[in-house]
Design a protein that fits this description.
10 strands, 12% strand, 17 helices, five-stranded parallel β-sheet, Rossmann fold, 2 domains, alpha/beta, binds adenosine monophosphate
Length: 389
């Protein structure tokens, strides 16, 4: 996730810049001012409460703001990220934002403050008032809004300065120049983030070949627990022999062993852009392990993808593979193949369902040529990568 807050006095250009940023970074836009105006237009209880305060340019109570913010964030928890405009405006709201971000296992990545003088703000808002239809865009109320900003909102910057995510930009420059500066900050922030993809799908859905191709295309480290285990078998290590026996009975390898191998791989890989996980997590327990591993490495899952292929086609594909030199030790007979498909259904499908509720899972049609499927998956991940690769 990428979460940005635009900060600055009324008239600083937050709304204008937001329009560019939401498209460019595929963010969900949250303007508390817009939400409040909508509530007023609908004459909701919340809107009626806020109306008289907005009319005089005061700040609406934190109680009202927390309600609308919580509703909007949790209703859009699958978004790529959020862009906050006009929030947080008080110290309390800064704490509220922090709490809500933690709840979503994410954080605010940068707070960008558009710096303009009060005179510029007044001029711009008076100009906007000619067409905006906003009754609070008149001089007396503008002055009051700026006073509220100076006294209650400006001190909030200290909260973020302490966290090292505060950036100041000269908001008096042209729209294009301000936009370029914001993008520079955001892209730098993005480049620090690891892009982690979890690739799900039944055995035979093409996860392995697609996963490798994606890793190459997007310059990611490919982590396929099955391949790592096979390596051990090939090397004929003690662990390898143990694994071989489990495979031949169609059973899963112990979590402890898998975790050890993944930890080793994560530690060994330096300067990577991110990871693509294939064949892990396979069980609910492993999904908690992955969450923990990601957190330990200061990162999180960016995208979850499931390749969908009808069961008969899966059996066909696995059966065909068993007759080639690519035959895996676990698909040498039909009964073993069926057992693996069942394992996936019983143990891994609940993991996908869990992730779907938490972050949203992108379903990809796995039928068609290799290139067609790769193209579909690439499109799904491209948005997150477009500014980095
Ligand atoms: P804006 O569209 O951001 O200029 O907001 C218009 C008005 O809505 C402000 O002058 C406040 O009265 C109210 N408002 C918007 N966001 C907030 C907030 N985060 N906290 C308190 N009041 C807000």
């Amino acid at each position: 996730m990428l979460n940005i807050a635009l900060f600055g006095p009324p008239g600083a250009g937050k709304g204008t810049q937001s329009k560019f940023l939401i498209d460019e970074y595929n963010l969900h836009y949250i303007s508390t001012g817009d939400i409040l105006r909508k509530e007023i237009a609908e004459q909701s209880a919340l809107g009626l409460e806020a109306q008289s305060i907005i009319a005089v340019g005061g700040l609406v109570s934190d109680e009202i703001i927390v309600q609308i913010i919580e509703k909007t964030i949790t209703g859009n928890r699958h978004a790529e990220g959020f862009l906050f405009d006009g929030f947080p405006r008080t110290y309390i709201q800064a704490y509220i934002l922090e709490g809500l971000m933690i709840k979503l296992h994410t954080k605010l990545d940068c707070l960008i403050s558009l710096d303009v003088t009060e005179d510029v703000s007044v001029q711009r808002l008076l100009e906007r008032g000619k067409t905006s239809g906003r009754s609070d865009d008149n001089e007396t109320i503008i002055r009051n809004r700026l006073k509220e900003y100076r006294e209650k909102t400006l001190p909030v910057l200290n909260f973020f300065k302490d966290k090292g995510i505060y950036h100041k930009i000269n908001g008096v420059d042209t729209i294009e120049k301000v936009n370029t500066q914001i993008r520079k900050i955001v892209n730098k922030e993005l480049s620090k983030k690891l892009l982690n993809i979890v690739l799900f799908g039944y055995p035979g859905s093409g996860r392995g070949s697609q996963g490798k191709a994606l890793a190459k295309k997007f310059n990611l480290e490919y982590i396929a627990t099955g391949d790592m285990l096979n390596e051990e078998i090939k090397k004929g290590t003690a662990i390898g022999n143990e694994i071989k026996e489990l495979y031949e009975n169609g059973n899963l390898v112990s979590d402890e062993l898998v975790v050890r191998l993944i930890e080793k791989k994560l530690q060994e890989s330096k300067d990577v852009r991110g990871y693509i996980f294939k064949g892990f997590p396979r069980t609910l327990v492993q999904s908690y392990i992955l969450d923990g591993l990601m957190q330990k490495h200061g990162s999180s899952i960016s995208k979850i993808i499931e390749i969908e292929v009808p069961t008969l086609e899966l059996i066909n594909r696995l059966d065909a593979r068993s007759k080639t030199e690519n035959c895996m030790p676990y698909d040498t007979s039909t009964s073993r193949i069926i057992k693996r498909l069942k394992e996936h259904e019983e143990k891994t499908i609940p993991v996908i369902e869990k992730y779907n509720k938490l972050h949203g899972v992108i379903k990809i049609n796995g039928m068609g040529s290799f290139e067609e499927v790769l193209d579909r998956i690439s499109k799904a991940v491209e948005h997150s990568f477009k500014d980095i690769t």
